[in-house]
Amino acid sequence: MEPSPPLTPCLIGDGTVTSLADMARALETVEAFAYRYLVDGECISEGRGTLVKILADDVSSTMLVNGCLFLNVASFRYVNFRTDVDGGVGFELHADGSVLELAPVDDPEMRVTRPVIRLIERDAFDPELFVRSDDEDEE
Fold first, then answer.
1. What is the Cα–Cα distance from 70 to 5, expressed in whole angstroms?
2. In the chain, where are the structural domains located?
3. Which of 8, 81, 90, 116 is the most buried (most CB within 10 A)?
4. In what order do the strands lie in the sheet with 32-39?
5. The whole model's pTM is what?
């Protein structure tokens, strides 16, 4: 009998994810949100916004501009998510010395004025996008 392959984690309600694909999938559940941005434990900015785009690449920045969040999961080391007693899920996106906290809110007005656009390309998590030799580019 062959040994069973190792299982991937099963996270229900609370968890920590480090894979870019898992981070993006968890964050796809967010539309409108309240946020706090902390640097070295100090709140630098807070407010509300709409998640407009999720991507994973090594060149684009995560930006919050005019209440629109363009979120590059590659900007973060890991994401914690926790479910509160009311069933709401909060996210903490951890980078080196900073944390972006997102608390989803049900705000139909924000969704109407700024529709959520999911633009994750299927190959966004292709390992070759992150490690590519010059020889491969010439083919």
1. 36
2. 15-120
3. 81
4. 15-17, 78-83, 89-94, 98-104, 32-39, 42-55, 68-72, 63-65
5. 0.76
